[in-house]
Design goal:
Blueprint (H helix, E strand, L loop, with lengths): L3 H7 L12 H4 L8 E4 L2 E8 L2 E7 L7 E4 L3 H15 L3 H11 L2 E4 L9 H18 L5 E2 H16 L8
Helix pairs in contact: 5-6
Length: 164
């Protein structure tokens, strides 16, 4: 069967072999959210005094290892993060990350399926937040923080078998 059409119509189905899961995905025990995937979503516009600033959604906590893509939100936020970092005590940040032993890994470019699990969860949070924010697109930072907490509670209280 050298004919491409014949191969497609009459060829035996191919079996795709799934690669091994990373060791972090197979580990049992340990703290919840020890290994996390991160993606930024937003921006949300909030009032700070008389000015307006951008805020982005991101998981909080102290994981052991963080994965993220090199998406436009993360790459685009680099300049904004650099400006914010200038105002922070870098020695304290370095000391705390070393003390907590946090490792950050990037997924390869153009391989979005590597972050499929957290991308799906972020989409759930994103849907909840935008449903709540639609009523008041311009808000103060405290209100946005409250909405993030509400979305977190909704997602974390879903039954384990229900992935939305």
């Amino acid at each position: 069967m050298d004919c491409i059409v014949c191969k497609r119509l009459y060829g035996a189905p191919m079996n795709q072999r799934m690669s091994d899961l990373p060791p972090e995905r197979c580990e049992t025990g340990g703290a919840a959210f020890r290994y996390v995937g991160v993606d930024l979503f937003g921006p949300f516009h909030v009032k700070v005094g008389r000015s307006e600033m951008k805020r982005y959604g991101l998981r909080r906590g102290y994981p052991s290892k963080v994965w993220s893509d090199k998406g436009t939100n993360l790459v685009g936020a680099r300049a904004e993060l650099a400006r914010s970092v200038r105002d922070l005590d870098l020695s304290l940040i370095v000391r705390e990350t070393r003390r907590r032993d946090v490792e950050w890994s990037f997924n390869p470019l153009s391989v979005s399926h590597h972050g499929g699990v957290w991308e799906r969860m972020i989409r759930s949070v994103h849907k909840i937040l935008f449903a709540l924010v639609i009523k008041s697109p311009r808000m103060v930072a405290d209100v946005l923080q409250t909405l993030f907490c509400e979305a977190e509670i909704i997602v974390n209280s879903r039954p384990p078998h229900q992935m939305q």
